[in-house]
């Protein structure tokens, strides 16, 4: 009984805090300099990709070390649609989502017969293959090969009194919140419960009549679509795509972001995004020559202090709800 | 509203970020300049796939220390902010924006890499911030009409290829040329430069041009096919590992053409020794900097000064790598521009001074090579000298050649 009251009370506090935080995140771009707005936009972009990865790994229990490839695909889809076909940049987001969903789904069909680390390795191969594929001579006319594709910076629509940076921040915020909402709703749905059942006990899930391959490929496609939207936003914000932007470290960075934020805890994606953007800067601030090693040390310390990511730490401190399932950390 | 807790964290994180990232601008009307300092930005790959090139950035830092220890530039200390981009273009943009918008740097100096500089090309030109002496050999950096704030430094790949074309036309006008090139912008720039240099004879003279990918394990089959084309001139546009393989393979199959090796791979230690000094005998290449491992400069004053600098300011640096020589010479060029700009250190004037160099010479350039720029010429270095490998070391020959 008391537990119920407490949870209702904390829910109310959480609601107030949520409104306050939303107001703050809307006000933030007007309070800080353009450069910081740009950085925060990048944090949110990585957060969207990690959110997708979290759906895959945290909810359905499959590993991908290749989400950088879908990020790249989304970025190139957006860049080519704008550059070669004159599409409005806003329309490239659903386009990137659709293309990445399709490719993710098709890749998932054979690959998801693989389990655990074998799937991770198959997706890793995808990440390794991406930069050379982008330079491949057949697609050179669109991708610009190593030269990449340049885009113009989009200005705020309807003559809104915003700077370009503020507009892109708000656009990314809205897209991110919408995608977060979709992810939450997905989890609360029949599909979400089926996915959690697959993670917890695939054989039992199969015995209950859940179509394992269908659900696994579906969530892989959705997860790829999230990465694709993030990639498209990245192309629009950075205004430039090149194969070197999507080297295999990007896939690793997304995976690291997922673990740091907390596997299975969706809001952790934002912390993961912040880690990707700021951790290298902090490491570099301490020592340039050793920045790679320091990045590793920061990572090891974080994992040591929070073995279940930021989500796990907050749960332990009673600040966050448990994961969406009974898996204990 | 279940999502509230993460917003709370976000709040905390943003608040922290605001404190950490609070701007600390120079309190003056000129960006990056006060009575006591000049703030210069640099972006180098200290981590990531191209981190071998970070030696340039480290040499620049060391040489700036030397300038400051000796009193700075016209009484001002140079405050060099050198950031790591890991050779990732989005990170380069982030670091460039940090340098311009937060650190208020006067200019971005010797930022390294073609894709990375591409990502900040439009941004810096839109902001009117000099992107001075970029450390890349692509030919797009000297375009004052469209990008008046960006200037190259080293001879671009096309220039070098044009010099080889001239040499071929003068010495083997009836030769048949085979080209091995890396399949990216670097390789293609060379190929284009070679074609441009040969002019209307390009199609008849180039009998074979085969690309390789950096992921290829060997380039043996390309060499066999190039030999089969019947060419008697071989232009080797490969990075060190592949260039060494090409030299070795050509010798193995008894192909002895006039062998022209691009400057990227002219290191004796890293390329010619592994390839076999005998196999490398007679190879021709072009240079613009003094090679620190070349005994002919043993008594050279500039070389002695460079060694002194390495002893005092960068003892852990690799003296056999031309990257440390490069970093030294390019920073000398910056020093020249800042000194010549005097007390008018506005971005416009710095760019104007950089674009009006007249036969400027900095130490470690080959004797006779100078830098000249104008409002329409944003390529400071366009001269090189040919050299031939005698089985032990490079021997310079002929005159200084401009494209």
Describe the structure in brief.
Chain A has 14 helices and two strands. With 329 residues, chain A is an all-alpha fold.
Portion in beta strands of chain A: under 5%
CATH superfamily of the largest domain in chain B: Response regulator
Low-confidence stretches of chain A: 324-329
How many DSSP-defined strands of chain B?
Answer: 11
Helix content of chain B: 40-55%
Task: Note down, in words, how this protein is organized.
The complex is a heterodimer of chains A (329) and B (403). Chain A has 329 residues and is mostly helical. Chain A has a domain at 21-26 and 34-247. In chain A, 74% of the residues lie in helices and 1% in strands. Chain A has 14 helices and two strands, in the order ααααααβααααβαααα. Chain A has a two-stranded antiparallel sheet. In chain A, α2 runs parallel beside α7, α3 crosses α10 and α7 (164-188) packs antiparallel against α10. The longest helix of chain A is centred in the N-terminal third of the chain and has 30 residues, at 2-31. Chain A is globular and about 50 Å long. Mean pLDDT of chain A is 84; it is low at 324-329. In chain B, α2 (54-69) packs across α13 (322-341) and α13 packs across α14. Mean pLDDT of chain B is 88; it is low at 15-28. Chain B has two domains: 22-155 and 289-383, Response regulator (Rossmann fold, 3-Layer(aba) Sandwich), CATH 3.40.50.2300; 157-287, Rossmann fold, CATH 3.40.50.2300. In chain B, the strands form three sheets. Chain B has a four-stranded parallel sheet, with helices on both faces. A four-stranded parallel sheet of chain B has the order 6-5-7-8, with helices on both faces. Chain B has a three-stranded antiparallel sheet with strand order 9-10-11, with helices on one face. Chain B has 403 residues and is an alpha/beta fold. Classes of the chains: A mainly alpha (329), B alpha/beta (403). The interface between A and B is large, with 64 and 52 residues.
